[in-house]
Amino acid sequence: MGMQRLIVLALIGFAAQLVDGALGMAYGVTSTSLLFLFGIAPAVASASVHMAEVITTAASGASHIRFGNVDRTVVIRLVIPGSIGAFIGACFLSNLPGDQVKPYVAAFLFILGFYVLGRFLFGNGNGTERKESTISKRFLIPLGLIAGFVDSTGGGGWGPLTTPILLSRKGLEPRKVVGSVDTSEFAVAVSATLGFLISIGWSNISWTWVAALMIGGIFAAPIAAWLVRIIPSHLLGVLVGGLIIITNAKTLLKTLDWIPSTWHTAIYSALTLLWVGSILLVVWRRVGQKWVSLSK
User: Fold this and answer.
1) How does it sit in the membrane (predicted)?
2) For residues 87-97, average pLDDT
3) Tens of pLDDT along 278-296?
4) pLDDT digits over 110-145, tens only?
5) Nearest-CA neighbor of 78 among 168, 142, 156, 170?
6) What ranges do the domains of the chain cover?
7) What integer pLDDT is reported at residue 98 of this predicted model?
8) What are 154-176's pLDDT values in tens digits?
């Protein structure tokens, strides 16, 4: 592997961690989507991302615990089912032919991109704290299982699935939702990595890819913590949602033979316009809110 490609992989890790550190989600989805553009097989891409996440999530979890952003009960109830789901998902993905599974993984990420976009475009962003109450095991165990499985098979999804779902429930402050999800993700990343190593073996993993992703993520972590104070979370959410949609649209259009190639430019243009329009809408709302507050 040439130095140029290693630098690109480090930049992918940097960009993914920048997004994840500012949003509390989307490291796996962002990095896997970008790795797909380099033609990396789904199992190898997802394995590389999860190995890099072992380091980045450990640092993130330690920081959240230190600042009291963690509900220990939620973490404990998410960790075991999440780990089981991630391990099963890793073994499942590794046993499927790469070329056959790639369109399905790209389709899942494409849909997840719209989910992330919609979540931050139309979601309630008042950031108010909720009264504390315990979220039941009956709710958290299946959530952990499904999110862990999806995270391994799609190369991402733990944060985008668990964070909005927990935020939609009455019972946790937003900061503790993000902190608990990030902290529990360490165990999910470790379990997924073990599953991939057992299924595809050590020799099929390029440790230089993993190291490049890790280095990029380590450099991005403190910058992301600074950026989150400046850029509104809804704007960052719309940015990453659009990024996921555009990158996976390219993979999907390459594999879907029934869509004429003459339509590709029009589809890209429509998706780009949707993305730009969403960004402008978020900015306009932000300016409008400031104008209203100043006029009072």
Assistant:
1) Multi-pass membrane protein
2) 83
3) 999 999 988 877 776 666 6
4) 888 898 888 888 875 444 444 444 577 888 999 999
5) 142
6) 3-295
7) 60
8) 767 788 778 777 876 766 776 77
Q: What are phi and psi of 69, to 5 degrees?
A: -95, 20
Q: Tokens 């339509």 correspond to what residue?
A: 263
The pLDDT assigned to 128 comes to 42
pLDDT of residue 121: 87
C-alpha to C-alpha distances, 249 to 98, 286, 288, nearest whole angstrom:
18, 29, 32
76, amino acid identity: I
* Percent of the chain's residues with pLDDT above 70: 88
Q: Among residues 78, 146, 53, which one has the least CA distance to residue 108?
A: 146
pLDDT at residue 235, rounded to an integer? 83
3-state secondary structure the chain: CCHHHHHHHHHHHHHHHHHHHHHCCCHHHHHHHHHHCCCCCHHHHHHHHHHHHHHHHHHHHHHHHHCCCCCHHHHHHHHHHHHHHHHHHHHHHHCCCHHHHHHHHHHHHHHHHHHHHHHHHHCCCCCCCCCCCCCCHHHHHHHHHHHHHHHHHHCCCHHHHHHHHHHCCCCCCHHHHHHHHHHHHHHHHHHHHHHHHHHHCHHHCCHHHHHHHHHHHHHHHHHHHHHHHHCCHHHHHHHHHHHHHHHHHHHHHHHCCCCCHHHHHHHHHHHHHHHHHHHHHHHHHHHHHHHHHHHC
Q: Give the number of other Cβ atoms within 10 Å of residue 87's Cβ.
A: 23
Q: With the C-alpha atoms ordered 141, 147, 148, 149, is the resulting torsion angle positive or negative?
A: positive
CA angle 181–71–154, rounded 5-degree value = 10
Q: What's the rounded Cα separation, in Å, for the pair 148 and 164?
A: 15
